[in-house]
Amino acid sequence: MDIIEIKNLTKIYKAKEFWKNDIIPGVENINLTIAKGEVFGLLGLNGAGKTTLMKVLLGLLKPTSGSVKVFGGDINERKNRKKIGYLSELPYFPKYLTANEILDYFCDLFDIPVKEKAERIKSVLKLVRLEGKENIKLKNFSKGMQERLGLAQAILNDPELLFLDEPMSGLDPLGYKETRDIIIALNKQGKTIFFNSHILSEVEKVCDRVGIIKDGRLVAVRKINEIKKTYATLEQYFVSVVAPSAR
Q1: Beta-carbon contacts of residue 79 (< 8 Å; ≥ 6 apart)
Q2: Of 31, 39, 80, 163, which is least packed with CB atoms within 10 Å of its CB?
Q3: Structural domain contains residue 184
Q4: Same structural domain, 115 and 236
Q5: Phi, then psi, of 227 in degrees rounded to 5
Q6: Which residues of the chain have pLDDT under 70?
Q7: Strands 2-14 and 23-35
Q8: CA 142 to chain centre
Q9: Considering its fold, how many domains does the chain have in total?
Protein backbone atom coordinates (compact mmCIF):
# COMPACT_ATOMS: atom_id res chain seq x y z
CA MET A 1 0.00 0.00 0.00
CA ASP A 2 1.32 3.46 -0.93
CA ILE A 3 1.08 6.02 1.87
CA ILE A 4 2.22 8.92 -0.34
CA GLU A 5 1.47 9.27 -4.05
CA ILE A 6 2.89 12.21 -6.01
CA LYS A 7 2.00 12.72 -9.67
CA ASN A 8 3.47 15.36 -12.00
CA LEU A 9 3.87 17.76 -9.08
CA THR A 10 5.09 21.27 -9.87
CA LYS A 11 5.36 24.23 -7.53
CA ILE A 12 6.32 27.62 -8.98
CA TYR A 13 7.07 30.73 -6.95
CA LYS A 14 6.49 34.22 -8.29
CA ALA A 15 8.66 37.16 -7.32
CA LYS A 16 6.99 39.25 -4.60
CA GLU A 17 8.19 42.61 -5.88
CA PHE A 18 5.45 44.18 -8.02
CA TRP A 19 7.96 45.43 -10.60
CA LYS A 20 9.30 41.94 -11.25
CA ASN A 21 7.77 39.18 -13.30
CA ASP A 22 10.23 36.49 -12.26
CA ILE A 23 8.98 32.92 -12.04
CA ILE A 24 11.06 30.69 -9.79
CA PRO A 25 10.54 26.94 -9.99
CA GLY A 26 10.46 25.23 -6.59
CA VAL A 27 9.95 21.68 -7.80
CA GLU A 28 9.09 20.44 -11.30
CA ASN A 29 7.20 17.38 -12.51
CA ILE A 30 7.84 15.21 -9.44
CA ASN A 31 6.57 11.62 -9.55
CA LEU A 32 7.08 9.44 -6.47
CA THR A 33 5.35 6.89 -4.27
CA ILE A 34 6.22 5.97 -0.68
CA ALA A 35 5.13 2.56 0.59
CA LYS A 36 3.70 1.81 4.01
CA GLY A 37 6.47 1.10 6.53
CA GLU A 38 9.21 2.61 4.38
CA VAL A 39 11.98 4.95 5.53
CA PHE A 40 12.63 7.33 2.65
CA GLY A 41 15.43 9.90 2.56
CA LEU A 42 15.19 12.98 0.36
CA LEU A 43 18.61 14.35 -0.59
CA GLY A 44 19.82 17.42 -2.42
CA LEU A 45 22.02 20.48 -2.25
CA ASN A 46 20.81 23.66 -0.56
CA GLY A 47 18.04 25.24 -2.62
CA ALA A 48 17.38 22.08 -4.62
CA GLY A 49 13.72 21.90 -3.56
CA LYS A 50 13.69 19.51 -0.58
CA THR A 51 11.82 21.79 1.80
CA THR A 52 9.40 22.94 -0.91
CA LEU A 53 8.43 19.33 -1.63
CA MET A 54 7.97 18.55 2.04
CA LYS A 55 5.79 21.64 2.57
CA VAL A 56 3.57 20.66 -0.35
CA LEU A 57 3.22 17.14 1.07
CA LEU A 58 2.24 18.65 4.43
CA GLY A 59 -0.35 20.94 2.85
CA LEU A 60 1.58 24.06 3.86
CA LEU A 61 2.01 25.02 0.19
CA LYS A 62 -0.43 24.48 -2.66
CA PRO A 63 0.96 22.86 -5.81
CA THR A 64 0.90 24.87 -9.03
CA SER A 65 -0.01 21.70 -10.91
CA GLY A 66 -0.05 17.97 -10.40
CA SER A 67 -1.40 16.09 -7.41
CA VAL A 68 -0.47 14.71 -4.00
CA LYS A 69 -2.32 12.01 -2.13
CA VAL A 70 -1.64 10.96 1.45
CA PHE A 71 -3.39 7.83 2.73
CA GLY A 72 -5.21 7.83 -0.60
CA GLY A 73 -6.80 11.25 -0.08
CA ASP A 74 -6.28 14.97 0.45
CA ILE A 75 -3.69 15.99 3.05
CA ASN A 76 -6.07 18.72 4.24
CA GLU A 77 -8.75 16.22 5.27
CA ARG A 78 -8.81 16.06 9.05
CA LYS A 79 -8.85 12.25 9.12
CA ASN A 80 -5.58 12.21 7.18
CA ARG A 81 -3.86 15.02 9.09
CA LYS A 82 -4.52 13.18 12.36
CA LYS A 83 -2.31 10.35 11.12
CA ILE A 84 0.70 12.60 10.52
CA GLY A 85 3.54 13.83 12.73
CA TYR A 86 5.95 16.61 11.75
CA LEU A 87 9.31 17.75 13.07
CA SER A 88 10.49 21.04 11.61
CA GLU A 89 14.14 21.92 11.18
CA LEU A 90 15.50 23.57 14.35
CA PRO A 91 12.26 23.28 16.38
CA TYR A 92 11.71 26.16 18.80
CA PHE A 93 9.94 25.95 22.15
CA PRO A 94 9.75 28.65 24.85
CA LYS A 95 12.81 28.21 27.07
CA TYR A 96 10.97 29.02 30.31
CA LEU A 97 8.70 25.98 29.95
CA THR A 98 9.43 22.38 30.91
CA ALA A 99 9.24 19.36 28.59
CA ASN A 100 6.10 18.25 30.41
CA GLU A 101 4.42 21.64 29.92
CA ILE A 102 5.31 21.67 26.20
CA LEU A 103 3.92 18.19 25.61
CA ASP A 104 0.81 18.88 27.71
CA TYR A 105 0.08 21.83 25.41
CA PHE A 106 0.47 19.66 22.30
CA CYS A 107 -1.77 17.01 23.85
CA ASP A 108 -4.52 19.63 23.86
CA LEU A 109 -3.84 20.48 20.21
CA PHE A 110 -4.11 16.80 19.32
CA ASP A 111 -7.33 16.41 21.33
CA ILE A 112 -5.77 13.72 23.50
CA PRO A 113 -8.17 12.99 26.40
CA VAL A 114 -7.11 14.41 29.77
CA LYS A 115 -7.07 10.96 31.38
CA GLU A 116 -4.57 9.76 28.74
CA LYS A 117 -2.20 12.74 28.82
CA ALA A 118 0.17 11.64 31.57
CA GLU A 119 0.69 8.15 30.17
CA ARG A 120 1.13 9.41 26.60
CA ILE A 121 3.71 12.00 27.68
CA LYS A 122 5.56 9.42 29.76
CA SER A 123 5.59 7.00 26.82
CA VAL A 124 7.05 9.43 24.25
CA LEU A 125 9.64 10.79 26.67
CA LYS A 126 10.81 7.24 27.32
CA LEU A 127 11.07 6.54 23.60
CA VAL A 128 13.19 9.65 22.94
CA ARG A 129 15.27 9.02 26.07
CA LEU A 130 14.17 12.05 28.04
CA GLU A 131 12.81 10.10 31.01
CA GLY A 132 13.39 12.02 34.21
CA LYS A 133 13.85 15.30 32.32
CA GLU A 134 10.16 16.20 32.11
CA ASN A 135 10.32 18.91 34.78
CA ILE A 136 13.54 20.58 33.63
CA LYS A 137 13.17 23.95 31.93
CA LEU A 138 14.17 23.95 28.27
CA LYS A 139 16.81 26.63 28.85
CA ASN A 140 18.82 23.86 30.49
CA PHE A 141 18.40 21.44 27.57
CA SER A 142 21.29 20.66 25.22
CA LYS A 143 20.82 20.91 21.46
CA GLY A 144 20.39 17.14 21.28
CA MET A 145 17.78 17.15 24.05
CA GLN A 146 15.80 19.89 22.28
CA GLU A 147 15.87 17.88 19.05
CA ARG A 148 14.62 14.79 20.89
CA LEU A 149 11.85 16.84 22.49
CA GLY A 150 10.87 17.91 18.98
CA LEU A 151 10.64 14.24 18.05
CA ALA A 152 8.53 13.58 21.14
CA GLN A 153 6.11 16.30 20.02
CA ALA A 154 6.00 14.84 16.50
CA ILE A 155 5.00 11.37 17.72
CA LEU A 156 2.71 12.45 20.55
CA ASN A 157 -0.41 11.70 18.47
CA ASP A 158 0.96 8.24 17.55
CA PRO A 159 1.10 9.07 13.81
CA GLU A 160 1.31 6.51 11.03
CA LEU A 161 3.42 8.85 8.89
CA LEU A 162 6.29 11.03 10.10
CA PHE A 163 7.84 13.96 8.25
CA LEU A 164 11.24 14.98 9.61
CA ASP A 165 12.96 18.08 8.25
CA GLU A 166 16.73 17.83 8.88
CA PRO A 167 16.29 15.85 12.14
CA MET A 168 20.07 15.72 12.74
CA SER A 169 20.88 19.35 11.98
CA GLY A 170 23.52 20.76 14.32
CA LEU A 171 23.90 17.60 16.41
CA ASP A 172 27.17 16.05 17.60
CA PRO A 173 28.09 12.40 16.83
CA LEU A 174 26.28 11.15 19.93
CA GLY A 175 23.21 13.13 18.84
CA TYR A 176 23.37 11.44 15.43
CA LYS A 177 23.32 8.01 17.04
CA GLU A 178 20.49 8.88 19.44
CA THR A 179 18.33 10.26 16.63
CA ARG A 180 19.17 7.34 14.35
CA ASP A 181 18.19 4.83 17.05
CA ILE A 182 14.88 6.63 17.60
CA ILE A 183 14.07 6.63 13.87
CA ILE A 184 14.84 2.90 13.66
CA ALA A 185 12.69 2.21 16.75
CA LEU A 186 9.77 4.18 15.28
CA ASN A 187 10.05 2.33 12.00
CA LYS A 188 9.99 -1.00 13.84
CA GLN A 189 6.65 0.11 15.28
CA GLY A 190 5.37 0.22 11.70
CA LYS A 191 5.62 3.96 11.11
CA THR A 192 6.39 5.30 7.65
CA ILE A 193 9.11 7.96 7.75
CA PHE A 194 9.92 10.62 5.14
CA PHE A 195 12.84 12.88 5.94
CA ASN A 196 15.51 15.03 4.38
CA SER A 197 19.07 15.39 5.60
CA HIS A 198 22.59 16.40 4.63
CA ILE A 199 24.12 13.79 6.96
CA LEU A 200 24.56 11.14 4.28
CA SER A 201 26.33 8.63 6.52
CA GLU A 202 23.27 8.53 8.78
CA VAL A 203 20.80 8.42 5.89
CA GLU A 204 22.66 5.37 4.61
CA LYS A 205 22.14 3.58 7.94
CA VAL A 206 18.38 4.11 8.33
CA CYS A 207 16.78 4.45 4.88
CA ASP A 208 15.28 1.81 2.61
CA ARG A 209 15.38 4.16 -0.39
CA VAL A 210 16.66 7.62 -1.21
CA GLY A 211 15.66 10.19 -3.78
CA ILE A 212 17.88 12.99 -5.05
CA ILE A 213 16.52 16.38 -6.08
CA LYS A 214 18.61 18.58 -8.35
CA ASP A 215 17.41 22.01 -9.50
CA GLY A 216 13.85 21.17 -8.49
CA ARG A 217 13.70 17.84 -10.34
CA LEU A 218 13.76 14.38 -8.85
CA VAL A 219 16.68 12.97 -10.83
CA ALA A 220 17.22 9.64 -9.06
CA VAL A 221 15.40 7.22 -6.75
CA ARG A 222 17.17 4.04 -5.65
CA LYS A 223 17.24 1.47 -2.86
CA ILE A 224 20.19 1.71 -0.49
CA ASN A 225 21.12 -1.94 -0.99
CA GLU A 226 21.23 -1.39 -4.77
CA ILE A 227 23.48 1.65 -4.37
CA LYS A 228 25.91 -0.33 -2.20
CA LYS A 229 26.43 -2.85 -5.00
CA THR A 230 28.14 -0.16 -7.07
CA TYR A 231 29.32 2.52 -4.65
CA ALA A 232 31.32 2.24 -1.43
CA THR A 233 29.20 4.90 0.27
CA LEU A 234 26.00 6.85 -0.25
CA GLU A 235 28.15 9.99 -0.40
CA GLN A 236 29.97 8.70 -3.47
CA TYR A 237 26.66 7.95 -5.18
CA PHE A 238 25.23 11.36 -4.25
CA VAL A 239 28.27 13.19 -5.66
CA SER A 240 28.09 11.13 -8.87
CA VAL A 241 24.51 12.30 -9.38
CA VAL A 242 24.67 15.98 -8.39
CA ALA A 243 28.21 16.73 -9.55
CA PRO A 244 29.44 14.03 -11.97
CA SER A 245 32.66 15.89 -12.73
CA ALA A 246 33.65 15.72 -9.05
CA ARG A 247 33.82 11.91 -8.96
Answers
A1: 71, 73
A2: 31
A3: yes
A4: no
A5: -60, -40
A6: 15-23, 245-247
A7: antiparallel
A8: 21
A9: 2
